[in-house]
Amino acid sequence: MSAMYRNEVPAYGTLMALVTKVNAGTLAADPTQRKRLEETDQLERISQERHGAIRLGTPQELSMMRRVFAVMGMFPVGYYDLSTAGVPVHSTAFRPVGDAALKRNPFRVFTSLLRLDLIADEALRADAGAILDKRRIFTAVAVELTEKAEKQGGLDEADAERFVSEALETFRWHDRANVSPAMYHRLHDAHRLIADVVSFKGPHINHLTPRTLDIDAVQAQMPDYGIAPKAIVEGPPTRDCPILLRQTSFKALEEPVSFEAEDGSWQEGSHTARFGEIEQRGIALTPKGRALYDDLLNASRKIIRPAADGSNAVDYDKALSEAFRPFPDSWAGIRAEDLGYFAYSLTAKGKTAKAGSSEHLDDLIAEGLVQFDPIVYEDFLPVSAAGIFQSNLGDDAAQEFTASPNQQRFEQDLGTTVLNEFDHYQGIEEASIAECLTALAHAEA
Ligand code: OOG
Ligand code: NI
Fold it and tell me: What does the sequence similarity comment in the record state about its family (predicted)?
């Protein structure tokens, strides 16, 4: 998919080159970080894609997509309601969930389902629904191999290869639209996102997102490379101890598309949908930490709202940093206030400790027997996602919708419930604590 996308969207290749360069510079300047990454991640994969995104049109597409991702060990985590932010979709992220799977490859796909129910124009809703009902976004072989994988609990190597190349077809760009120019304009006038979902044969991947070790540097250097960054970096400010997720993108490009008119002739037009993004991740926050994050972000946006043209970006960054002062910026501080999730492990001293020391985690840490490391946030942030959507749909695209989260409906359409991210991180933390305590309890007296 990465190769296909670089080929289809050359600016994305440029972004990848910039990210690779900045990451190499960061690692050269910081041997400690380099060593830590060498121990915990695979350095050679540091600049590779961490996520991408698609937008689906119908419940049937969503539930089939779930089955396709399941073949690759990717499961739906989290529910994101974007209606509050003026985008008529709700979403989840398909991703690996186990520690081993995440280490091997943490690639996720942010997957949105169009909500025609939020479109006021009834006639348009019916027409869009009819167009979507006719398309088939999966190849017959992809469906057949998915069924085979479900039946036998996996695929052999030859089938797996075929599966990947067939599944890739679903994400491909189509430069011939599914609709007439007139219909495209009707859809587009209702909302640009509706045109993007309904007008094409399939849910083209609309961006890929490599990991950067210095998002501020990449954001600053994008213009030097001839790519236009969105106005601001979404998410928390720059910090010593990174929290959650920071992300930014270059603005979607206008691409040539042809439309078949009612009289059968082909007409040239264009469509704007595809872009490139970068991300930098920090610690997963507890519900308490997340509430504090949301409060501080809201507070900063009361002082200054980021302007779409970037004219107040410097002031916005400053207001954001100031608003986040109350959020502790040390791992011990974050832990003391129960704001983030940590993985606990025995120190070298802990590994040779005698049994019978305290059963209290704080004592064990104070004695130098147990250490804690931040658990990385693997999910997404609805306010940030809305900012990414918005800057790539065109800045006139924001629309008022009544906030109407409908997780139950989403899960019904998906065909399963989504994993609750907080429960998941808490489970990882609790398991690591139990492992430390068990090991110490069984140490030789
Ligand atoms: C998805 C936007 C959300 C992110 O990184 O938050 C997203 C889209 O534009 O379809 O990818
Ligand atoms: Ni994204």
Answer: Belongs to the 2-oxoadipate dioxygenase/decarboxylase family.
Please report the ipTM that was assigned to this predicted complex.
0.99
Q: Is the pLDDT of residue 85 over 90?
A: no
pLDDT tens-digit readout, 251-289: 888 999 999 998 989 999 999 989 999 999 999 999 999
The two structure tokens encoding residue 195: 């045109």
Q: Is 206 in the pocket of ligand 1 (CB under 6 A)?
A: yes
Q: Is any atom of ligand 1 closer than 6 Å to the C-beta of 275?
A: no
Q: Quick one: which atom of ligand 1 is closest to the CA of 52?
A: 11
What's the chain's length in residues? 445
Helix, strand, or coil here: 199? coil
Q: What percent of the chain has pLDDT over 90?
A: 79
Phi/psi of residue 115, nearest 5 degrees: -110, 90
323 occurs within a structural domain: no
Domain presence at residue 23: yes
The SS3 of residue 292 is: helix
Task: Count CB-CB contacts under 10 A for residue 188.
Answer: 18
> 219: domain range?
2-282+379-414
How far is residue 402's CA from residue 310's CA, in Å, rounded to a whole number?
A: 28
Tokens representing residue 178 in the block:
């599914």
Look at the chain and report how many structural domains it folds into.
Answer: 1
Question: Is 365 part of any domain?
Answer: no
The number of the ligand nearest the C-alpha atom of 380 reads 1
Asked whether residue 244 is assigned to any structural domain, the reply reads yes
Ligand 1 atom 9, closest CA: 389
What's this model's pTM, rounded to 2 decimal places?
A: 0.94
Count of other CB atoms within 10 angstroms of residue 283: 23
Question: To 10 degrees, what angle do helices 313-323 and 287-303 make?
Answer: 140
